[in-house]
Specification:
alpha/beta, oxidoreductase, 18% strand, NAD(P)-binding protein, oxidoreductase activity, NmrA-like, 14 strands
């Protein structure tokens, strides 16, 4: 494997929330960027990028786009919708067919590799497929997006609502830092340090109760523990309650290993230092509080 750093990237889901930050960060690095989108999409090429419209279900068409643009790394930033997650299987097969050198599946949140069920299970199965295809992969776990903390705690309801104990610390990182970190390691580190690797980062950490008090006590002084998050107070209440339970179990920590059911200690539990010279921002700074 060559130690020359990567310069050519294809991004799926570039118009999504995390995808925008990843794209902007790679553009800032001067990388060659191909944006792939569905034929029906109205997306236009962002400055510093090229765009191809392809049928995500057509392995041959996607592989041809990769070959045409000499793509070295495929970055998936698709959302949590089941159909979007399922599309990664076609993308992975196309990447293998085209000789792509590295695949970055859509992770960026809580650790999922080793999960068996639900959305996390779908994410885990993508990595299993990459292994079967002998496609080198890089997974990045960063915990909850810091920008989501107000919604996670239902601040707009007039109270901070917690479904469960809310006492176990979890990881949180801003979307801009996730994008910046990924762009930095992909364009700076040699491929040998990125292949078949799980990177774990965090900008801040705390429990739901800790963040409620630390960030929102002035605005929302009441912290209420509930058995069920009311739909009227919490959009996507069922998913938020699922995350609250995940945090209570410890699996919201970016150091969590789903396979062993334990927290990874030591240097392999956190890779913040790979982004040399970066000053990580805590939640208060990210949210402008």
């Amino acid at each position: 494997m060559s130690n020359a750093t990567y310069t050519s990237f294809a991004i799926f889901g570039a118009g999504g929330q995390i995808g925008k930050f990843i794209t902007e960060a790679l553009v800032a690095k001067g990388a060659n960027i191909l944006i792939l989108t569905r034929p029906s999409s109205k997306t236009s090429a962002a400055p510093g990028t090229q765009l191809e419209r392809v049928d995500y279900t057509d392995v041959g068409a996607v592989a041809a786009a990769f070959k045409k643009h000499r793509v070295e790394v495929v970055v998936s930033a698709v959302g949590l919708e089941p159909q979007a997650l399922d599309s990664q299987e076609t993308i992975a097969r196309a990447a293998a067919q085209a000789g792509v050198q590295l695949f970055v599946p859509s992770e960026y949140g809580n650790p999922t590799y080793g999960a068996k069920e639900g959305l996390w299970g779908k994410k885990s199965r993508v990595v299993e497929l990459l292994k079967e295809l002998k496609m080198p992969f890089l997974c990045l776990y960063a915990g909850v997006f810091t920008e989501y903390l107000p919604g996670l705690l239902c601040v707009d309801s007039g109270k901070c609502l917690i479904a469960g104990e809310g006492k176990t610390p979890f990881s949180t990182t801003s979307m801009s830092e996730i994008g910046g970190y990924l762009a930095f390691v992909l364009t700076t580190l040699p491929p040998s340090q990125l292949s078949d690797r799980f990177l774990r980062i965090e900008g801040d950490r705390g429990s739901l109760h800790d963040f409620a008090v630390r960030l929102f006590a002035d605005k929302v002084p009441v912290v209420e523990h509930v058995a069920v998050l009311p739909a009227a107070s919490a959009p996507h209440a069922e998913f938020l309650a699922f995350l609250h339970r995940e945090f209570d179990s410890g699996s919201g920590d970016s150091r969590w290993d789903c396979v062993s059911g334990k927290r990874i200690e030591g240097a392999e539990g956190n890779h913040n230092a790979l982004w040399e010279g970066h000053k990580w921002r805590d939640a208060r700074e990210v949210l402008g509080l």
